[in-house]
Design brief:
This protein is of the alpha/beta class and about 1100 residues long. It is about 55% helix and about 5% strand. The termini are far apart.
């Protein structure tokens, strides 16, 4: 009950103190009191655990001892023991409260804070007699005189009241001491008399002042330490007044000159170390120079100490001291020479001394001066650490220090558009003579430094700077002398060691930014998708979509519709054609009005030079992708697109021949020439498009993807894409160097359109003639003319001459009025062309055929000539295109073109003679690809190395299976092998091969030269016939150059011979063309075998 009473009273006091409710507001007071009582009665907070508090205090004491703060631990234990007698029930709560307030007591507690608990002691009042104890009644004394002049004994007497001390009073005289060491001072003064001594001879002339060896040595050491001396002036020149005692003057002069020369070499270094430099690079170099001189001064002091503290007599050798200092002075000489060269150069850059240090350290290493190499190398790397700071800031943050004139990167003051940041926002500083404003030894790494910083800047604009952290290594490689140039690599050149270490340092930062940006370009910004879109749109990788776009354009041209010039219509056509493979909202199209303003619809239709180049497709790329694919690259894409569109235009005109009516077929003598020319034009355009797709665009796009994936940074990606664009433009014959050839190709395209126009005009003329004849016959007939159908045809159902077209090419967008207008325009166009033509149709066809052949010869010859005269990478492709055109010309003339495999090429058939299908396929696949690529009609197998019969049969069967029954397979054995199996180069029996696979072999090109056959008489050939070989299966092979083998042949006596094979050499690279004349019983064929 007493507890409750006390508890209620305490609660009242708590409410009154906390709430501050006045006494008059009893209702509110009572409510607060009830709430407080209820809360206090039902609280779940127990009392503090005193044992836990004790354990925490013991733990704190132990922690003090663990961290080495034993004094704190002892003080804590002392106060805990002192608190023990005063312990009560509130002691644990108080200690727990203090522990909760403590903030890292083991680190933040100070033992000196305990002094604040000590109460200051009161000073005892001085005795009255002490005040007047030392009163000075002298005239100059005063009451304000300070007691500082009093002796320590007098001051001590003020604090004591001992009467015994009063009887022994001390004054200032008692403290006076007698000076000591006067003899020593006198001795020192006497030893320095020689400095100002003056000696004259009997005639009054001054004489040399003799000095001792010790004096000379001390002066020389002082001079080397940069101190003023009496024997040497400020320029380290010997003073002529002195001479070493007991030594001739010449010897003395040579000795002091040696010391003076040593100190004179150090003068530039001493002066530089005492100067004041502003650039941080020069400040650190100055600090390194001061440290090197301090090391020398320490060595000089040690020499003096050794001579001063000697305990026994020693011989002082000036030459010995000079030799002892030589190895220590040599590195400083090299350092002083660098300072001297730096001061002599005008307008030198702040980093110039880094180049001098780098070169001097390398030379010292080559000369074997290890001390000089270590000193200069250490100073170089110490100073290089300062130069690394702006490089590190640039490569990690993409920032430049304001006002920094030593770094080689500068930024334009104006902000450029985002796509131009990489190329133009930042630049490398160059000197007026064009050199980079950077140390020479950093030039191999400047490109990576530059690109790493630009990568960070671009990543910041992408808001992806933080993503570089996942590529960062733990710590950057150290760039100090001990790490870069360890003792075990002392024989390795400094340049190699530095380049290796700095490459690792650069790679730790360059790879981070480059890898991040490259990954983001592919993953987040769609670089691969952008390349796919450009390939679909400009390179026409999807033939069906490109064909759909081109056919719509060509339909408008053929219908003389001007709607294709409207950019909205053209954009709609492009987006509809390429929907599904590109983002159509990025694609737009327009027509260059300057190219179409002065050309009529008829002109636009009749040539590929005016209308098609005016069509411009634009595909908007994201700005990060534009960094890799700039706008000038899009112009090159547009050039390839235009050229392919022109080829498709010519091909679309030729796809559907214009046929005459049956009754006009016999009256037109130019129809066969028309079909021949049309087929040749189709062949030419198909060959050209095949070359573009298979040899230019496909391999180059695959190479581009590989190069972009393997690129180390964005610059490499830009270079890879720029190289890709340059290759496809040059290889597609669109460069400035092949402009005449390109114009000739366009002439062929126009020739295709002209061919169809002439044929249409001739068809219209014949149709009009037929109508006129029919009209006259009707007029002459007593019967009425047949009724006409609404469509312009007679009731008899006779169709008009027209061009065959598929139903898919009908234009639904053109209305009936437009159709009628277009038909009239086409008729007028055909009539005009027909009326202007004065030559017969057959003559025009022949002239066009001659013109086509002339163009093809010019193109093939021009490509061949330019390829041989050029060293460009595209020259091989030009030569290949010329070869394709030449081969196609031969094939179009009925000549079979065969390739030759083997010959003097060891290993060709050895690799194909295997039971392993994987190995066989690995070497056979390129061969089959070559045959298809060159469209060869056959292959000559010249086996001149050991091969099994099974192996050659396997190869023949595979060729027959892959290329069909019309593919010619021939072999080229030596003539002796057809007589006896052991006299051959092939390793297998040709008679057995003839029995097993003779039906698959067209003939044998027997080698009658180089000792393997004799054609001087028909004896050997007749032996082959006697042996059982058929004459139509043996072709005699000869050489036309006597240097390549001896042969003779008399052709008049050989009547059963199938043909002859002759080696002909063209051009310096010895292109071998084998021509074989084949004669059969009923007809003859000519086979040309090209050795590839």
């Amino acid at each position: 009950m007493a507890f409750l009473t006390q508890f209620g009273a305490l609660t009242d006091e708590l409410v009154a103190a906390v709430s501050g409710i006045p006494q008059t507001n009893n209702e509110r007071r009572d409510a607060c009191r009830e709430f407080a009582l209820r809360s206090l009665r039902h609280n779940t907070l127990p009392r503090t655990n005193q044992f836990d508090v004790k354990d925490r205090l013991n733990g704190l004491e132990e922690r003090f001892y663990v961290v080495g703060r034993d004094a704190l631990g002892e003080a804590l234990r002392k106060r805990l023991n002192a608190l023990e007698p005063h312990h009560n029930q509130f002691t644990p709560e108080a200690l727990h409260f203090l522990l909760e307030l403590a903030d890292q007591p083991a680190q933040n507690s100070k033992l000196s804070d305990l002094d604040a608990l000590i109460e200051p002691e009161e000073e005892a009042p001085a005795a009255e007699r002490d005040i007047w104890r030392f009163v000075d009644y002298a005239p100059g004394s005063s009451d304000e005189e300070d007691l500082d002049g009093q002796s320590d004994g007098a001051l001590e007497s003020l604090t004591t009241a001992s009467s015994a001390e009063d009887s022994c009073q001390r004054t200032a005289q008692n403290l006076a001491t007698k000076p000591q060491g006067e003899d020593l001072v006198k001795q020192v003064e006497d030893s320095q008399v020689w400095r100002n001594a003056s000696i004259k001879d009997a005639g009054g002339r001054p004489r040399k002042i003799p000095i001792s060896t010790t004096q000379l040595l001390r002066e020389a050491l002082f001079m080397l330490a940069g101190l003023e001396t009496s024997l040497f002036d400020q320029q380290c020149n010997p003073v002529t007044r002195y001479q070493l005692w007991g030594v001739s003057y010449d010897s003395y002069k040579a000795l002091v000159t040696s010391f003076a020369e040593c100190s004179r070499k150090l003068l530039p270094l001493r002066a530089f170390s005492r100067g004041s430099e502003q650039p941080p690079l020069l400040q650190v170099f100055q600090g390194c120079a001061q440290n090197a001189l301090h090391s020398l001064d320490t060595d000089l002091s040690l020499i003096q100490t050794r001579l001063v503290t000697r305990k026994e007599d020693v011989v002082i050798s000036l030459i010995g001291v000079l030799e002892e200092l030589g190895p220590k002075l040599a590195p400083l000489y090299a350092l002083a020479d660098i300072v001297r060269r730096l001061q002599e150069e005008r307008n030198s850059h702040a980093f110039r001394y880094l180049e001098l240090l780098y070169d001097a350290a390398g030379i010292a290493q080559l000369q074997g001066n290890s001390a000089t190499y270590r000193l200069l190398g250490t100073i170089f790397f110490d100073c290089f650490q300062v130069y690394l700071k702006p490089i590190r800031l640039w490569m990690e943050e993409g920032k430049l220090l304001p006002g920094d004139r030593t770094f080689f990167v500068s930024e334009l003051p104006t902000k450029l558009p985002l796509p131009q940041i990489w190329k133009r926002q930042f630049n490398l500083l160059r000197t007026p003579d064009g050199n980079l404003h950077a140390p020479r030894f950093l030039k191999p790494a400047i490109h990576r430094i530059f690109t790493a910083g630009k990568s960070i800047v671009v990543l910041k604009h992408m808001k992806q700077h933080e993503s570089t952290k996942k590529y960062r290594a733990g710590a950057e490689p150290k760039m100090d002398f001990a790490t870069v140039c360890p003792d075990e690599l002392e024989l390795a050149p400094l340049s190699e060691l530095f380049n290796t270490a700095f490459h690792a340092w650069i790679q730790s930062k360059h790879h981070t930014a480059a890898a991040t940006l490259r990954e983001l370009l592919f993953s987040s910004h769609g670089l691969s998708e952008a390349l796919d879109a450009l390939e679909h749109i400009y390179l026409m990788s999807d033939g069906s979509r490109s064909g759909a776009f081109a056919s719509l354009i060509f339909r408008h041209l053929d219908n003389f519709s001007s709607s294709w010039k409207d950019r909205f219509t053209l954009t709609e056509i492009a987006q509809e054609a390429f929907s599904g493979c590109v983002d159509t909202y990025r694609l737009s199209a327009e027509v260059d009005a300057r190219s179409t303003t002065h050309h009529s619809a008829i002109t636009a239709r009749s040539t590929v030079r005016h209308s098609l180049p005016a069509i411009r497709l634009q595909y908007r790329l994201s700005w990060p992708v534009q960094t890799i694919i700039p706008s000038d690259a899009i112009h090159s894409y547009q050039t390839i697109f235009t050229f392919q569109l022109q080829a498709r235009r010519a091909l679309s005109v030729l796809q559907h021949p214009i046929l005459f009516l049956q009754r006009h077929t016999s009256t037109s003598s130019g129809l066969p020439t028309y079909h021949i020319l049309r087929i040749k034009l189709l062949w030419f355009i198909n060959t050209l498009t095949t070359y573009l797709t298979t040899l230019v665009l496909a391999p180059n796009t695959a190479r581009l993807r590989t190069d972009l994936r393997d690129a180390a940074d964005v610059d490499d990606m830009i270079a890879a894409h720029a190289s890709f664009v340059r290759r496809i433009v040059n290889e597609a014959c669109q460069g400035a160097r092949l402009q005449p050839i390109r114009e000739c190709v366009l002439d062929v395209f126009d020739l295709a359109i002209n061919l169809e126009d002439v044929q249409r005009a001739e068809t219209g003329r014949l149709e009009e003639e037929g109508k006129e004849v029919e009209r006259l016959s009707v007029l002459a007939s007593p019967f009425k003319s047949p009724a006409k159908s609404p469509f312009g045809a007679s009731v008899t159902g006779r169709p008009k001459a027209k061009r065959r077209r598929s139903e898919e090419e009908d234009d639904d967008d053109v209305d009936d009025d437009g159709d009628e207008k277009n038909r009239k325009m086409l008729g007028t166009f055909g009539k005009g062309r027909g009326s202007e033509r004065v030559k017969p149709h057959a003559v025009v066809m022949r002239e066009m055929l001659v013109e086509f052949e002339r163009h093809v010869r010019f193109i093939a010859g021009g490509l061949r000539g330019v390829a041989r005269a050029s060293r460009e990478e595209a020259a091989a492709k030009w030569d290949m295109l010329a070869e394709m055109l030449e081969l196609r010309i031969l094939q179009a003339s009925g000549i079979k073109v065969l390739g030759m495999l083997g010959g003097a090429a060891p290993g060709t058939f050895t690799r194909l003679d295997t039971d392993d299908p994987t190995v066989f396929s690995a070497y056979y696949t390129p061969l089959a690809h070559l045959i298809r690529e060159r469209a060869l009609d056959g292959l000559d197998l010249d086996v001149e190395e050991p091969m099994s019969l099974r192996g050659i049969i396997q190869l023949i069967d595979r060729l027959r299976s892959d290329f069909g029954p019309d593919f010619l397979i021939t072999l080229a054995p030596v003539a002796a092998a057809l007589l006896r199996a052991e006299h051959n180069l092939s390793g297998f029996d040709y008679e057995a091969l003839e029995v097993l696979r003779g039906g698959e072999i067209a003939w044998y090109n027997a080698q009658f030269y180089c000792g393997w056959g004799d054609c001087s008489n028909p004896a050997m050939y007749e032996m082959l016939l006697v042996k059982g070989w058929a004459a139509e299966r043996i072709v005699v092979g000869l050489v036309t150059n006597p240097k390549n083998g001896r042969h003779e042949m008399r052709t008049k006596r050989w009547t059963l011979m199938r043909g002859r094979k002759r080696w002909k050499y063209r051009f310096p690279e010895i292109l071998n063309i084998i021509r074989t004349a084949e004669s059969k019983r009923n007809r003859g064929r000519l086979h040309a075998m090209v050795w590839i």
